[in-house]
Every structure is written in C-alpha cells, then in structure tokens.
Amino acid sequence: MSGSARHHSTSDASALPSIDHAERVRTIVDRLPSGDGCDALLVLDLTDVRWLTGFTGSNGWAVVRRDGATLGTDGRYRDRAVAETAGSGVDVIAEETATALEQRLVETLRGAERVALDASTTPHSRWTRLAAQAPLEPTDSSVRLLRQVLDDAELARIERAARAADAALTEVEPLLLATGDEPMTEHDVRTELEYRMRLHGADDRSYSTIVATGPVHGARPHHDATRRTIVEGDTVIIDVGALVDGYHSDMTRSWVIGEATPEQVARYALVAAAQSAGIGALAEVGASGVAAVDIDAAARTVLDDAGYGDWYVHGTGHGVGLDIHELPMLVRTSRDHVRWGNVVTIEPGLYREGFGGFRIEDLVVVTEDGPRVLTQSPKRGVR
Amino acid sequence: MSGSARHHSTSDASALPSIDHAERVRTIVDRLPSGDGCDALLVLDLTDVRWLTGFTGSNGWAVVRRDGATLGTDGRYRDRAVAETAGSGVDVIAEETATALEQRLVETLRGAERVALDASTTPHSRWTRLAAQAPLEPTDSSVRLLRQVLDDAELARIERAARAADAALTEVEPLLLATGDEPMTEHDVRTELEYRMRLHGADDRSYSTIVATGPVHGARPHHDATRRTIVEGDTVIIDVGALVDGYHSDMTRSWVIGEATPEQVARYALVAAAQSAGIGALAEVGASGVAAVDIDAAARTVLDDAGYGDWYVHGTGHGVGLDIHELPMLVRTSRDHVRWGNVVTIEPGLYREGFGGFRIEDLVVVTEDGPRVLTQSPKRGVR
Question: Is B12's CB within 8 Å of A226's CB?
Fold first, then answer.
C-alpha cells in the first residue's frame, strides 16, 4: 500500500448532514393508533430499528407508544446505543442477558391493546413466544413503508456512495480492458473495485460485487466472481455499489473485451435503449405516483418488441436505501407505486448461455422535477 | 495495483477436496422418520440448503423425503443450481415466478404426514401460509446440528481461510505499529486487511473486520471501524477472518501502540492466560464430549480470580463453519456440548471505557488427539 493511496480515506460520517431521528419517532407516534387500530409498534427488524433510532448494533428492538420510543439492546452495545441515539429522544435499555432483555420488552409493551409487528421478518418461534405475552397483530412493516421516501440527508449519503463507486470503476476499467495484455480474473476485478471504493471514501461495498464474464457466467444475472480469466471477445457485466454511513449505491455497466461483433453491438444498444426508456418513464411520476409495473413495462417492451423477451429474466428495478433492496419493487407482479423521494434502480439486461449477457443499471432519485440519475460512470461498453 | 500483487490471486475451489453432498443427503434420509416422527424435512435456511445440496444462490428451498432430496429455486439460478448440485443426486426444480415455485414446494411435500421445519429461522408469515398447505412441525434445525461436526474437506477450506488472514495480518501489523510515523485510521487497517486477504487466496472476508482502538472504541467488543487515527498508547483489537468456498476463519489479536505501561502489560498477560486456559480445557474433550459451559468457565475463571470478571462482557467462543456463528455456543448459559470434529473459537477479552480493551482469539479444531489451533499469527501485542 502506498502512503498516498492511504490518504484518500478522508470520508467520514461527521461531514454529512445529520439524520433527524426525533422527527421519525414523531411521525410514527402521530400514526398511533394506525389504520389497523394498533396503539403500539414493536420493531424487531434491525434495519427498521436503525432507520427509526440511529442504533446500528446487531441486537436490539424498538417500541413506539404514544409517549415516545424505547430502544432495547444487550450489554455489549450499551455505550454505542446511548451515543448513537443521542438527540433522538429515545430511551435506551441495556440488559446483560437475553432473558432479562426479553422481560424488559414485555414490560415496555404492558397495557397496549394491539401491538403491530412485522410478520414477514419475525421468526415464527419468536412470534409464538412473544404472542403468549403481548397482543401481537401481524402488519406490513410500517417503518419499511416510510423508508421508501428518502430525505436530503439520506440522499447525501447515497450520492457519496455513488461517487466512490464511480471513482473506483474509473480506475479499474482500463485494467479490465487490458486483460489481453495483463490477465485479470473476475475475482481480481472485484477485489480491486471493492478496495478502491474504500480508498475513495466508501465505508464498504454495498453488496458483493458481481463480475460476470464470458458465454457461461455472463448469462447468470447473479453470478459470483470466480477465478475465471477474462479474455478477448467476452461480454462483461460489473454490478457494483458502495456503502456510506449505512446507505447503499447500486450501478451496473457492461462491456465487450476487444472489438465487438455486430451482434454484440446490436444487443448492447438494445439494452441501452431499454434502460433509457425505463428512466424516461420516471418522468411521468406525478403527485399521486405511478404504478411500478408501468416503469417495468417501459423498459421491458423495448426488449419484448425486439424478440428478446425471454432473455430478460428479472425485474427492472427496486428501491435502494438502508437496504440494497427496498420498496418499491419495479417488477411485473408489483403492486407498489413509485413516488417522489423514491430512489430506485433501472436495470434491464439480456442473458443467454453461449452468448453471455449485458445489463445497464443506474440509480435514480425520483423528484417533482423529474428523474435525477445519481450514478455517473460512462456507458462505453462496445467500441 | 501492481501486477505482482494481482498474481497472488491463485486460489480456487477446484484445488480443494470436494464435499460429498450425496453422503449428507443419505444421512438425513436415514434419519427419517426422525425422533419427532417426521417423514419429511423442509429446509428454508439458505446456509442449511447449501450444506445439504451445494447450492449457493440467494433463493431456494430443499425437501428431503425417503426417496431423496429436491432443490427448488427461481429462474435466475437454474443453470447454477444444476451445476452446483451435480453429483449430489438432488433433483432440481426451477420456476420463473414465486407463485409457481411455492406451488411446486407444496406438491413436493404432498403425502407427507409430518414435515419438520426450523421455526427459529422461518418468518412467521411464511410459516402461517405454508402451514395452511402442509402439516408443519416446529423443530430445531436438524441440519444445523449436523453442521457442527466438520469433515476434512471443510477443514481444508477453513485452514486456507486462516492462512489468508495470517498472511494479511503479517503485512499490515508493521503498518499499524508505525502509525506514529505514518498515521493509520481504524478504517485504513480494515481496508488493507480485507484487500490483502483476497490477494492471499481468500474469496472474501469472513465478516466485517473489527478494528477497535483507544480508550473508547477499544472498550466496545463489537466496534465498527471508524476514521479515528490510531495513536501512541492506544490499545488495539483486530478481529479478522477470511472466507474460502463458503467457509469462515476467525481470529483476534491485540496490541499496545508504542511502549506499554505496566498496567497494560499485566492486563494483556491476563487475557493471554485466560485464552491458554480455554484452549487447554479443550484437551479434556473425550468420546462423549464436554459441556460447553466448562470451556467457558476455564477461561472465565482466570479473569474472575484476578478481579476482572465484570470487564469480560461476552462468551468465550462459538462454533465456526459455513456461518461465522455456528453451534456449539461456548457461553455461560449454553446447554451445548463440545465434541470431536467441532471447530470453535476461544476468545476471552477485557473491556473498560477509559482503558480500552484486549481480546485474543484462536480458531481451534477439537480432535481425538486434542485441540489443534488453526490460526497461526504470533501474539506479540505488548513489548
């Protein structure tokens, strides 16, 4: 490691606008009792707990009642919980043993008539134990629904993450394209990208970087990088994002190594056209939103019409925030809506064993003034 | 990136002994009906699915019945599922939509009288939907219990992971100790370790590397690395592991930057003594195993007797394998046993805000011939 490389690591959360957790707690309190008549909300999903309180530890729960919110965690996280929730108005409870902490949870819920709890993320055995001691009501996560709309402080984190991925890709792209002279494996490309995102201000990668190359791996949308050496003629898909203070970015670019065949050029252009159509459709989002299926359809139709419908084996996109996959889901079967303040991916692709694949993906914030693309790496996959 | 660094990336799974998934399926089939009378086992936990079938995708289930095993997944993973389960004798089903895949699951379970399913990892809403269509019985994960005993092929992966972490730490330790001349942050240390583990043959890190330094962060056992610059006088805890073909390693070393005070020297020696006592206790494991609480007690007693009982705020260890935290749990409240073939950590520590902390951890395979330590980095934390 060179000293100069090390000194690129200058990013830190303190230079970012702070997130107003007290406001989030107030929003939830104001919704109690919510549509399903619940007078308490129990939050067990750790990403929901983080969104609500700021606490980032690996064990904890939050309860919201009309008089405010409580965070419970174990002794390992006592200091951290107090530090991270300062200013949120959340009361912190820390107990040394799991039994004592569970007892405190039951006490915190005492007197509530209906306790909303997300049934889709709570393990069945935990639900069963808790249901014996508190009047649980299965609910969609109301926190997860609120998480869909991102504020400026959250956008600042995602934009910084996107910049780190752009900077890393700028450095690694020439190495990738020179694989004929100095061989690179899929693993090498992933290793360099993830390392360089950190040198450019990311806390971490957003997810395990996908590097899918050649006629077999390139046809697998979720391929894990292997020691396969990338060679002339390969299609290459790189799906890479960074993490900044808990927030994710997400971007995909595709290439042909060496001179592209006319068939490769045509299929790349088709994916690019589908991707543009998907982003264009986000301009139609008005005050009441747009059905997510319509965004999916805008991209998909381009591929369908060209006879490649069955080469497009996944959805067009998803929300991004504290999780890499947030609501809304932009897929054929979605019932979600896309609204102002959503940050979503638009990522159509084509895949076929023997050919390989292409995917192009941008991260886009949907605003009253139209879509704004957050991922800025150039798209120069075929030459 | 230098070319020579890149060429260190020579590790790949094909050079490792292969894992016999067919044998694992036979073991489960032979246990049907198991003690609870179930004539089918449904596996939804993805790590359990991988252990049983070899499939590594992010969506899927496995069913074991008397006539064999079936793996279900979605269209994205069709090719990969077939490739990864070749030789296991597992039938592969792939369906494009979630609805169709769920229908195939219900069909696969048809006729079973009692279907064992792990209630601790299955979300409540999924349990409720499935229970309407199949006679589910909550069970401890029988797969997770089998996963505790590792075979030679699994040990080869863990040992390679441990070597990668050792090699990375060998390179980064001098940079850490020279932070007075060329400043390193916690984040820098983590970044370099995770990068270099990959250059030395790891597929990835085992978990987000812990770098906890100084009087505040060092007192938090599960601290996340920050941009704090490491300075003279700091205690430093580095908890680092690598991943090879899905298997984890786990190791912790501690240091004082610069010359240690007599108090630091004494406390470091105490942790080292507790850690030796924990490893020594593993020599007592005979054919019937040893209660995990006894291993925890062996390490804990050393700290308790020196008056530091309340500085030791976590358990002594845990199993390691396809997950970083496997059974058995070596904690005060454990009911588990430690047996031959287990790979466990021994990791006592001391933590106190104002002082910082020390932890020393090795990964140990428990054999008929006694404990064999897999993590080989030297322990030279104080000078």
Answer: yes
Whether residues B314 and A76 touch (CB distance < 8 A) is answered with yes
Helix (H) or strand (E) holding B137: strand B136-139
Interface test with A, best of B1, B160, B226, B324 (most A CBs within 10 A): B1
Pairwise CA distance, residues A124 & B142, whole Å: 17
Q: Is the peptide bond before B123 cis (omega within 30 degrees of 0)?
A: no
- By three-state DSSP, how is residue A326 classified? strand
From the list B6, B57, B191, the residue facing A222 with the nearest CB is B57
Phi, psi torsion values for B309, nearest 5 degrees: -55, -45
Q: From B138, which residue of chain A is nearest by alpha-carbon distance?
A: A125
**Predicted ipTM?**
0.89
Q: Where are the CATH 3.90.230.10 domain residues in chain A?
A: 152-373
- For chain A, where do the domains classified as CATH 3.40.350.10 start and end? 20-143
Q: What is the CATH number of domain A20-143?
A: 3.40.350.10
* pLDDT tens series, chain A, 383 aa: 333 333 333 445 558 999 999 999 999 998 886 556 789 999 999 999 999 999 999 999 999 999 999 999 988 888 889 999 998 999 999 998 888 999 999 999 999 999 999 999 999 999 999 999 999 999 876 788 899 999 999 999 999 999 999 999 999 999 999 999 999 999 999 999 999 999 999 999 999 999 999 999 999 988 889 999 999 999 999 999 999 999 999 999 999 999 999 999 999 999 999 999 999 999 999 999 999 999 999 999 999 999 999 999 899 999 999 999 999 999 999 999 999 999 999 999 999 999 999 999 999 999 999 999 999 999 999 97
Q: Which top CATH class is A152-373?
A: alpha beta
The tokens of A178 are what?
Answer: 């020179």
Please name the amino acid found at residue B30: D
Confidence (pTM): 0.92
Q: What tokens appear for A179 in the block?
A: 């694989």
